[in-house]
Amino acid sequence: MQLALGCAILALVVVGAVSYRGIVVSSESDGWVRHTHEVLDQLHDLQFAMQSIESSYRGFVLTGKESYIESYRSSIASATQAETNVGNLTVDNPTQQRQLPGLQELMAEKIKFGESVIGLRQRLGLDAAADVIQGGPGEQIMDQFEQVVREMQDEELRLLAQRAADAKRRLARTKVLLAVGTILGVLIAVAAVWSVRRDSFGRGLTEEALRDSEEKYRTLVQGVQDYAILMLGPTGEILSWNPGAERMTGCTFREAIGLNFSRFFTPDDIEPGGPAEILRMAATSGMHEEQGMRARKDGSRFLVRTTFTAMRDRAQKLRGFSVISRDLSESKESGAKYRGLLEAAPDAMVVVNQSGDIVLLNVRAEKEFGYRRDELLGQQVKTIIPKGFAERLIADGTRSTAEALAQQIGTGIELNGRRKDGSEFPIEIMLSPLESAEGILVTAAIRDISVRKATEKHLGQMEGRYRGLLEAAPDAMVVVNPGGDIVLLNVQAEKQFGYRRDELVGQKVKNIIPEGFAERLVADGLRSDADALAQQIGTGIELNGRRKDGSEFPIEIMLSPLESAEGILVTAAIRDISVRRAADSHLAQMEGRYRGLLEAAPDAMVVVNRRGEIVLLNVQAERQFGYHRDELVGQRMKNIIPEGFAERLISDGLRSPEDALAQKIGTGIELIGRRKDGSEFPIEIMLSPLESAEGVLVTAAIRDITTRKTAETHLIHKVEELNRSNEELGQFAYIASHDLQEPLRMVASYTQLLSRRYKGKLDSEADDFISFAVDGANRMQRLIQDLLAYSRVGTKGTDLLDYSSEDALQQALINLRAPIGDSGALVTHDPLPTVLADEMQLIQLFQNLVGNAIKYQSPGVPVIHVSAAMNVEKKWIFSIRDNGLGIDPQYFEKIFGMFQRLHKREEFAGTGIGLAICKKIVERHGGNISVESQPGHGSTFRFTLEAGERKS
Amino acid sequence: MNKIGRGDAPIEVLLVEDSPGDVRLTKEAFRSASPSIHLHVATDGVEAMAFLRHEAPHGQAPRPDLILLDLNLPKMDGREVLAHIKKDESLKGIPTVILTTSDAEVDIVKSYQLQANCYLNKPVQLDAFEALVKNINEFWLRDAKLPKRGLVGSA
């Protein structure tokens, strides 16, 4: 008995030690797991930070915003920190330490690359930086880096696995020892109990001794954590409960005591009376081992292997059962490994059961959602993923979980995650099934895709904007990918080429631009897309486009690159230039025709542009100015027309060329032209505008007017000479006659005195001589007076004014009253008009004519009539008709000459200057004078005068 | 007989004329018109002024009742003489008649502006000339009232 006790105690101690060791190992194992997790965590952070660096500098390249540079810098700091941490954490692991330099190097490369790209963007702009990113080493660095990180992760996991295996082994050993120890202990205990019982019966063991051993047993049992050891009453009610059972089922001691053990069976088992059956079998055979599903307090299931041992008292009465259960769930064995992996995963991992409860989560999930583990375990997954997860997943009545799951496996689903603080963020979840004792669980890897979403949104926005611009563009726009396929086109392109959009998308651009596009653009082996493109950007290229119906038409295309998620695309703006071509050829034709006309023109023609430069000239211009054509084209007009042309023509600040020109068109302008030899000659230019592609040009027709000018000058000289001469003559006549008067007066006066004083006192011959002298002197005086009067018509004339001819006649008659009185002449007149005349001269005119009419009278009474009539030229014709002697027609001209007389002096006095004076007066008035007469039938003198304004 | 209300003193007329022919003609004309007129002659402007101012050799010259003045004179011409006469307080009261062959408007205007009492144009014909002199005599020396010699100016 003491031996048995001793053995029991020993067994207990051993078990205790082993348990302790198991705990240590367990906690050690836990510690390793934590450590591994930390390293993996840091590696993940490092990886994350590197990705951030990349996306930051890419972000900057795309947008040029400073915020990206900040993000870039902070990412670098995070990365550096993480790398340091990794180093520190793995300080005892040479394998890992060996990786570090490589890691650092890759980081440095990446950062350097990032710096260069940022710099490029800042200096040269989007295109240059994009190009560098495209062809740069960024991706390779990243791949290598991730490779290293993966290796390190694997290493850690391997280490972990190793340690886990180690631990497992030890644990297994522990378990075995434990099992052995426990069984041994149990057996010993049972034996002891049996022996004690027998002893107590036989030897009178006291209840106390029994209680004592029970107590010991209880202690043993309590010490066991991994096994559920319990006592059942005969009908299965739970009499004792150990921590192992608590752990396994989730029920506490207090809760379990009194319950029927079948409570922990699944509904499937309870029904057919499974638990009772087990008890019966155990009672029958004394011990029954079975394996089956149990249900925990929370409803989750687990697999157990249970040994039921019937306990009988000395009277063989069934006292109850002892039950030892071992949890067989895979999560216990491979579960540890799985848990380790879960913890180490870079993404947040959440394991959800069929009812949508979270059964497992890792530390990343804690971090992502801001919860502590125990706050989420057992919660509905809805808490962290409000919509979309549960619905997709949980089997409804129509399909099984497996089917529901099968639909989702492998696809990344985008949903929204909700943090503990209520904020939501976009996530992507990847599901994978997990078989467990409790059924199929769903492992969800949850990734925060906020950044990705933002980028996508931004990209989407840009694309949206771009698409909008594309559609709205007035030209046909076609976007082509590096393979030469059309990826996008706008409605204008549809119209121009006569295709529908879907007929062209995906087609080769060759279909609409047969030649020239693809060749120019697509990278040949010698250069990259970017290079090929760079050569073409911005220049308009003329090619031929082909419509759906096969017809071709000339086009001009302008290329520009477009970065997109699919790589660098080429946007081509396509413009139909058929009209332009036609216009060009038409213009060329017209210019040709114009040039022809220009050459053929008889005058020199010069075409000048706005700046006063000669753009065109004809052969006449060459001749006139003595230049060769090419010596003048492009030269300033000033070279051949020094002054006056440019100034008149070219706009000053105040008016446009059109205005300046308009003023000059059509008028001939006289200027001076200069020949090549420097000689100048007078020219007349006529301007006309000419519209051309280069704007408004001026065509100048240039005529050499040298002869005209000389003739003009000659004429002017002659006229001046004549005027001078006339004036001199006039003056001469006046002076001559005036100065002649004096001596003549002496002669005439003294001869008369002589005649008077000595008449009859000298002999008769003396009387004759004296009378001839006197006569001569008198005549001379009269002649000179007449001459004076005649010359005065021109020199002393006043301006012609409106004057009443009737008044002039009246005055003349007053002056003639003596002769009229003496002859008894009858002078009548019609109403006479207002004329343009010199007053004195008009009176003189009438006086002479009427005087003549009276003087040259025929026998009887002179009858004279004055009348006036208007002629076709609106001039007045005056007529003075008399009944005098008349004039022989052969003398009609002669009588108007100076000093012409038709009669002897004895018959009629007079010097013969009267009519000459009349003629001069009339001609001075712009008219002419004539006579109509017949000898013996009187005469009619006619003269014309300009009509004057009516005088009221 | 011409009387100017001064008793029997003869009428003094100064003729300023450079042409001797004209002088003789004028003399003859005045003689036939009115024989008692004393006609004095100055043949140029300077002599005329000397006469009027009683300067040698005309120290004893009488003050004329009428001056007949030709315009075109040598040395000092008639216009100047006229100006001098009409500026001189003691002489300007003497009626001065321009007697000239010129009928130029400018001469007429100038003469009247210089305060000539009358402008006469010498006729070309002898008869007309003689008639004019007669008219002068009748108008100026008979009809017109002239101031008494001795009351105006000093002898």
Please name the defining characteristics of this protein:
heterodimer; A: 952 residues; 5-stranded antiparallel sheet; 31 helices; 27 strands; 21% strand; rod-shaped; B: 155 residues; alpha/beta; 5 helices; 5 strands; globular; disordered C terminus
Description:
The complex is a heterodimer of chains A (952) and B (155). In chain A, 52% of the residues lie in helices and 21% in strands. With 952 residues, chain A is α+β, with helices and mostly antiparallel strands. The longest helix of chain A has 66 residues, at 138-203. The radius of gyration of chain A is 70 Å and the shape is rod-shaped. The N and C termini of chain A lie far apart (181 Å). Mean pLDDT of chain A is 81; it is low at 395-399, 523-527 and 651-655. Mean pLDDT of chain B is 87; it is low at 151-155. In chain B, helix 1 packs across helix 5 (126-143) and helix 2 packs parallel to helix 3 (78-87). With 155 residues, chain B is of the alpha/beta class. Helices cover 38% and strands 15% of the residues of chain B. Chain B has a five-stranded parallel sheet with strand order 2-1-3-4-5, with helices on both faces. At the A-B interface, helix 26 and helix 27 of A face helix 1 and helix 5 of B.
